[in-house]
Design goal:
single chain, Beta-lactamase Inhibitory Protein, Chain:B, domain 1, alpha+beta
Length: about 150
Amino acid sequence: MSINKALFLSLAALSLSTACSSDLFITHNGNMPTNERIEQVKVGQSKYQVKSILGAPSSVVSLDRNTWIYMSSDIKRVAFMEPEEVDRDVLTIKFDNKDTVAEITRMTKKDGKEIQVSEEKTEAMGSDQGFFEKFFGGVGQYMPFPSGNTNRL
């Protein structure tokens, strides 16, 4: 191998390695309060007091509205590779019926579990439509103009 080819190959390898290494990004998502602020929250405080100390939660559980969640995560992205979560922090504050703090829980990524997504499909219950029902079943149901008396100005 000539010296020119060896020099060219080493320069190409060096440029590829530096190009790929600069595509590393770590993004921070969420609004986790500082540890000093979290330590100020005590059982028995009101929602107003918690909000004034920690700020607005990242999420409020929609079914009971008495569970506030503060969370943050760090995601590492390298070029075209799949993103990887490197750190996660979740603070859960539960309130009782009097809107005072009943429970404070904090978890990290170590406390979580990996969940495998199932590739199986669930059959939808109902009747199977035939050819004519699929293609002509909606005939006569489309009404571009409303029926009845409508007063428009």
